[in-house]
Amino acid sequence: ETPALVLGIESSCDETAAAVVAGDRRILSNVVLSQLDDHRPYGGVVPEIAARAHVSHLDGLIRRALDEAGVTLAEIDAIAATAGPGLIGGVIVGLTTAKALALGAGKPLIGVNHLEGHALTPRLVAEVPFPYLLLLVSGGHCQLLAVEGVGRYRRLGTTIDDAVGEAFDKTAKLLGLGYPGGPAVERAAAAGDPARFALPRPMIGRPGCDFSFSGLKTAVRETAAALPQPLAEQDKADLAASFQAVVGAVMVDRTRRAIALMPPGSPLVVAGGVAANKHLRARLEALAAATGVPFVAPPIRLCTDNAAMIAWAGIEHFRAGRRDPLDLKPRARWPL
Ligand code: KG4
Ligand code: ZN
Q1: Which atom of ligand 1 is nearest to the CA of 172?
Q2: Per residue of the chain (336 residues), what is the pLDDT tens digit?
C-alpha cells in the first residue's frame, strides 16, 4: 500500500503556507510566506491586511508546493486546510481554496483544527506514541494538553488572560525592541542580567496547571517606567532577561504539575512559535530529564506556523477515515 499523499494549506494568521506530506513522514515540500513586513508598521497582525495577502499569494504557493514535491493534484489523496481557530478572514481564504481544489479535482476535503496541527507535529518527525503531554505555546495559545489519540485531547491547563507569545510581543513593544517580539526579547535577554529585577512570578506554587501573564506584563511596564528615559540598552537587556527568566520559571512550574497528571514516562512535547526560544527549551529539557520523561521538540521551522503540520494532521485523520463535507464551516474559535 502506498502512503497517503496530502496537500496542506495554512492561512489562519500571518503566514501563508502550502505543503505536500506523505504518510511515511516524508515532507515533499513545505513553503511558507511570512507577512511580517506587511504588518511590521502596525506592530502586530492586522486581520484585513492578512486576509488580502492570503488572497494574493495562496494559489501561487500551492503551485510551488506541488511543483517542489514533483506531484500533480491528480496524485494527491486528500486536501487538508486549517478550518480554524484563527483570524476568520484568513481561515476563509484557505478553506475556500481547499474546497475549490477538492471539488475541481474530485478529492476529499479535511478541515483541520490549527491547534491539532501543532499537537500532532511531533509524530511527523519521530515515532512518538500516545499519550504524550503537549505544551503548546504560541502567539495565540498557551495550553497544556494530554494528547491521547488523534482527535482525543484533554486540556490540563490554559492561560486565564494573555498567551505567552503575546506577553513576549507586548514586552518587546514596551521596551522598544521591535516586531515580532519573541525573537527580539530573546536577543536582548542574551546580554542581560536575569536577576536584576524582581518581577512577580504569576501562578507559581498554585494548584492546577493554568497560566497567567497579564500581571507580569504590567510589572514590566511599571519597572520600565521607573527607569531613566529613554531606556538604556543595558536596562532593556536586563528587563528582557528578567522577564524571560520568569516566563521560564512559570512554564517549568506549570509543566511539572501537568507531568504528574500523565501516565508515568509519557513524553513531554513542546510546540508553537514560543518553542523556538532557546532559554525556554533548555529549561523544559532539564525538567524532562529531572522527571525522567522523554523530551521532544520539533525543529523550529515546524514549531512556527506552517502547512506541513496541517497536511500531517490531515493524514492522521485521512487514515482514520475522516472526510469533511464541502459545506464545512470556518471557525474563528474552536477549542480542541
Ligand atoms: O506558532 P506561531 O508562529 O503563531 C501562532 O501564534 O499560532 O507563534 C508566534 C509567536 C509570536 O508571539 C512570537 O513572538 C513568538 O511566537 N516567538 C517567540 C520566539 N520566536 C517566536 N517567543 C519567544 N522566543 C522566541 N525565540
Ligand atoms: Zn500556530
Answers
A1: 14
A2: 678 999 999 999 989 999 999 999 999 999 999 888 888 888 788 899 989 999 999 999 999 999 999 999 999 999 999 999 999 999 999 999 999 999 999 999 999 999 999 999 999 999 999 999 999 998 888 999 999 999 999 999 999 999 999 999 999 999 999 888 999 999 999 999 999 999 999 999 999 999 999 999 999 999 999 999 999 999 999 999 999 999 999 999 999 999 999 999 999 999 988 999 999 999 999 999 999 999 999 998 998 899 999 999 999 999 999 999 999 999 999 988
* Residue 136 annotated as binding site: yes
Q: Which atom of ligand 1 is nearest to the CA of 86?
A: 7
| CATH assignment at residue 159 | 3.30.420.40
Which of 16, 115, 138, 164 has most ligand 1 atoms within 8 Å of its beta carbon, as the pocket-test mutant? 138
Report the separation in Å between the CA atom of 119 and the middle of ligand 1, taken as the mean of its atom positions. 16
Residue 56: CB atoms within 10 Å: 12
Note whether 71 and 46 are same-domain residues: yes
- Last residue of one domain, picked from the residues 204, 239, 266: 266
Do residue 241 and residue 138 come from a single domain? Answer: yes
Ligand 1 centroid to Cα of residue 132, in Å, is 22
Nearest C-alpha to atom 23 of ligand 1 is from which residue?
182
Write out the residue range of the structural domain in which residue 196 sits. Answer: 130-266
Domain count, the chain: 2
Answer yes or no: is 288 within a domain: no
ipTM, two decimals? 0.97
Residue 273 domain flag: no
- Give the global pTM: 0.91
Neighbours of 218 (CB within 10 A): 12
CA neighbor of 11 nearest in space, from 54, 49, 52, 48: 54
Residue 152 sits in the same domain as residue 188: yes
Beta strands 268-271 and 78-84 are unpaired
Which ligand has the minimum distance to the alpha carbon of residue 310?
Answer: 2
Ligand 1 center–CA 272 separation, angstroms = 7
Distance 335 CA to ligand 2 centre (A): 13
30 sits in which H/E element? strand 27-34
User: Does some domain include residue 277?
Assistant: no
The C-alpha atoms of residue 270 and residue 281 are separated, in whole angstroms, by 8
- Which atom of ligand 1 sits closest to the CA of residue 14? 4
Q: Are residues 19 and 113 in the same domain?
A: yes
8 A C-beta contact, residue 45 and residue 53: no
